[in-house]
Amino acid sequence: MNYRQLGKHGVRVSEVALGGWLTHGRSIDDDTTSAIVYRAFELGVNFFDTADVYNRGEAEKALARAIKGMRRESLFISTKCFFPMSDEPNDRGLSRKHITESVHASLKRLDTDYVDLMQCHRNDPEVPIEETVRAMDDLIRQGKVLYWGVSEWPAARIAEACHKATQMNCCLPVSNQPVYNMLNRYIEKDVLPTSETYGLGQVVFSPLAQGVLTGKYKPGQPMPEGSRGADENSNMFMGNVLTDETLQKVQNLGKIAEKFGCTIGQLALAWCLRQPGVSSVIVGASKVSQIEENAVASGLMIPPEAWDQADVILA
């Protein structure tokens, strides 16, 4: 496993991170979660990503049980807040009240004294940016949070947060967690350049386009049994990438992967990591074999001309 700095900052995270959006505390049991987390750690993964809203806190609890007994200092744990956790009017958003209470609740569920990275799960236009910045800074000064970041924020809001933090002598955000993969490159226009200007590292989610970029979905064929595509509770965001045209393009990427002795999924992860502004790719896993396969993408050497060929295929 290779490690990269989180943007311009000193902490180093594994190029491949393990997330638990649709798995931890939901679709896999505790024994499976623990086996996957332990194997990921054996393979050098130190970055484990979760969020309070993932299965209403159950994902954080499942991760806590899985890492019990591990050396805390060897782990980099990130969580998030923003989305409603109840029907209460203040149990949502990025107000000082909600951020502070969310951190305390996450610490309890994660059974830890601090989180390495606390992320604003989405932008909240109803809250002044200085309120969010100050709340994060206070939690950092209290030792409950080490770093803070954002997720799916527009470039202008990232810049505004960094300007305000500098003006207020507060800690700046260190990361952004956007969707980024071969089929969705929107961050390259504004978000990635802005993040690089202010020193934020990208910790990208859905680098495999929810499994489509593994090549397991074939054009003209039914969804594989047990896959996310076949699960109506998990495939709500997959409609635009499950077209036969897209699936055929993904199959064509197999020629490039075969040339370099890797799978289509490993090729797709390496494509994300080709960007120096990307610090880590966050993958999910419901089987130990999946994290074993994905971890191989770290350090995979693919020449630039291969990416040019991929662009032609995916155009």
What does this structure look like?
With 315 residues, the protein is an alpha/beta fold. It has one domain (3-208, 275-299): TIM Barrel. It contains ten helices and ten strands. It has helices at residues 30-42, 58-67, 96-110, 129-141, 155-167, 191-198, 244-259, 264-273, 288-295, 304-314, and strands at residues 3-5, 12-14, 16-19, 47-49, 76-81, 115-120, 145-150, 175-176, 201-205, 278-283. The protein has an eight-stranded parallel beta barrel, surrounded by five helices. It has a two-stranded antiparallel sheet with strand order 1-2. Helix 2 (58-67) links the parallel strand 4 and strand 5. Helix 3 (96-110) runs parallel beside helix 4 (129-141), helix 4 packs across helix 5 (155-167) and helix 5 runs parallel beside helix 6. The longest helix is centred in the last third of the chain and has 16 residues, at 244-259. The mean pLDDT is 96.
In short:
This protein is an alpha/beta fold and 315 residues long. It has a single domain, classed as TIM Barrel, CATH 3.20.20.100. The protein is 37% helix and 14% strand.
